[in-house]
Write a structure and sequence with these properties.
This protein starts with a helix and ends with a strand. By secondary structure, the chain is of the alpha+beta class. The chain is elongated, with a radius of gyration of 15 Å. It contains two helices and five strands, in the order H-E-E-E-H-E-E.
Length: 119
């Protein structure tokens, strides 16, 4: 069975979002922009009074980086479009514009809530 994270990576690569450069947690040093990092914020199984059901709600945070603000906004839109066009069941939770002064890179941080079957 393919994990949610594996499905997300395959989607980003297939859609060529940020040149297909996507990494869990952190990018390797000297990674060319644009690129995406991601991590699981939370994963909560759906339950009812009869116990657990097969659905899980997983929140994933994506951080998109580029040297220009226009470039990072474009990459974030491409990620939104790729997720919307996929068969993943996702709801965008929030988006935030940031700047990394040490690397002089613009960053957009986007959180999605994904509903999926237990892995």
């Amino acid at each position: 069975m393919t994990t949610l994270q594996e499905q997300i990576v395959a989607l980003v690569i297939a859609a060529d979002v940020a040149g297909g450069r996507i990494f869990p947690h952190a990018a390797p040093n000297d990674t060319q922009t644009p690129f995406i990092t991601y991590f699981r914020v939370s994963s909560v199984p759906e339950t009812n009074l009869n116990g657990s059901v097969s659905l899980v709600n997983t929140r994933i945070q994506f951080d998109l980086y580029d040297k220009t603000y226009a470039g990072v906004v474009e990459a974030a839109k491409a990620l939104d479009d790729a997720i919307a066009a996929s068969n993943l069941k996702a709801v965008r939770q929030l988006s935030q514009d940031l700047f990394e002064p040490e690397t002089r890179e613009h960053r957009v941080s986007v959180d999605y809530s994904f509903w999926h079957n237990k892995e």
